[in-house]
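Methods — Computational structure assignment.
A single polypeptide chain was analysed. Its primary sequence is given first, followed by the predicted tertiary structure written as structure tokens.
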Amino acid sequence: MILSMTGFGKSVVSLAGKKITAEIKSLNSKQLDLLVKLPQSYREKELELRNEVSRSLERGKVELFVTTELSEETSAVNINIPIVSSYKSQIEKLSEELSIPLPNDWYATLLRLPDVMKSDSSDVVADEEYDALFKTVNQAINALMDFRKQEGDRLYHFFAEKISNIRKLLSEVEPYEKERVEKIKARIQDSLSKLDAVDYDRNRLEQELIYYIEKLDINEEKLRLTNHLDYFMETLDNGHGQGKKLGFISQEMGREINTLGSKSNHAEMQRIVVKMKDELEQIKEQVLNVM
């Protein structure tokens, strides 16, 4: 079964005093384009996390976001009084030396300065927390893969329907083929009959007609298109990792359909070809989402 490149996964893991949340999403891309955003305390594990994502997802524009949230008992934040005192002294000295007024609201001024607030929690990350981090990310990846499988199943049925529609339209061309040849032949003969006092070689005319009609023959295009339709479905059944191949096959299908249109010389056949092109464009659009 094919996989979609589009997906979303989320996981939350709790451990003593902290909750870790991982969210991962992917869109279509020719190769793996990975963006990772982590809390500063997890930066040293970024390369390992990138490798973990790369092994599982292969292709797509992927974004991984990891956030942490402290529980109430561990998220106590205190004012760093020595730093505040130092800031206040420096501002007073600055005011005196530069002859500028002191702030009207000391609290608003001082509390906005760096490192005024400090947390009681340690910046050192324990192995247990790193284990929880990787567990969270892997669960999010698994959720995304489940999403990709569901989307892949939807795409499979979508493609099967569109291929079936093109087959049906191709079969509708057949009744007009003989009629088209007769109309072309009649039109040429009618044009010749309107030319007064013109003598022509009827045998040569028949030869030219045969040559002209052979150039308009579409049996080869019909056969090749049918083969491409069969190959497309066979590739679908081969499993994931077939997105690029499906794109190449759809391009070949487009060439045969375009040739059918250029050779048709029949209004109804051209309308059928337009419908086939519409079905194919929908296939091409969705093939971009296939792994």
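Note: Residues 127-193 form the longest helix (67 residues).
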